Amino acid sequence: MDRSFLKNNQQFLDYLNHENNIEATKEERFKRKRKTIEALTKYNDLKVAEVDSQYFGWIPNSWLERGLSSQAYGLLVLIVIHSAPVPYYQKQIAVIGNLAIRRLLGLNNANRKGKIDDLLYELELSEIIVVHDNFIELNREGTSNYQGTGFTKVYASTVKKILEHMQGMKVLNVLASYLALRSTIFENRTSGNLPVTMGSLQAWASGKVSLSPRVHSDSLKWLREHDILAWVEAIRNNAKHNSCFYYSELWDAESIMYEVLASLSSRILRLAS
What we know:
Layout: H1 3-7, H2 10-20, H3 26-40, E1 56-60, H4 70-81, E2 83-85, E3 92-94, H5 98-104, H6 112-125, E4 129-131, E5 136-138, E6 151-155, H7 156-165, H8 170-182, E7 196-197, H9 199-208, H10 213-225, E8 230-236, E9 243-248, H11 253-265, E10 269-271
Antiparallel strand pairs: 1-6, 2-3, 3-5, 4-5, 7-9, 8-9, 8-10
């Protein structure tokens, strides 16, 4: 989506027509329109690898009802990213263990081995994994077996970016927050798969991975500040004028623009200044 596209888009023209009729000075209207155009075109020059949308891990949504600790959910994200289907084997395995996990997290202190073992044991007690000497077995079937309750995708490119910007055990909470955000997306189409974070939805999502809304909010802020995800902030046109954020994977950034444009046209929201 670029500026030339906006000039010929009826939804954008409807938005401009509305802005031209609001009670505000010409300068104020100009600033609002400029801010909107900047937000709608902020990812025009984004370059992403073609494979970024192709490599992902997945977690049955029923596992998000097991009441695990947030760090266990974060570790689960790492495990499923390193898993793959194995021929002649009904379940799946992750070729990863305690040492590899500590290296991914940048944990040089050997005493963290016990903490990782505790988290693996927590996942094992919940019958999510079975830890073997050289691999971890995931207790799940193929995705077709979860059509009723569904499953959540987490993308390798996003996990990689998180690990590039943060090290240590605190990474696990950020990964859990990413999982919570992804769990609000229903991927039954190729675009427009956008989670929107507001008060009640944020509390509901964070609770699924045992994070407080505050910690979840701080993690999402960190993801925005480090350009891990594509995002746009907006103000809802309601009595409270509360803010919300639209998110997507970087490779799907264009979907935010179409969704926000539709909401602008229908006066559901305006963009934050």
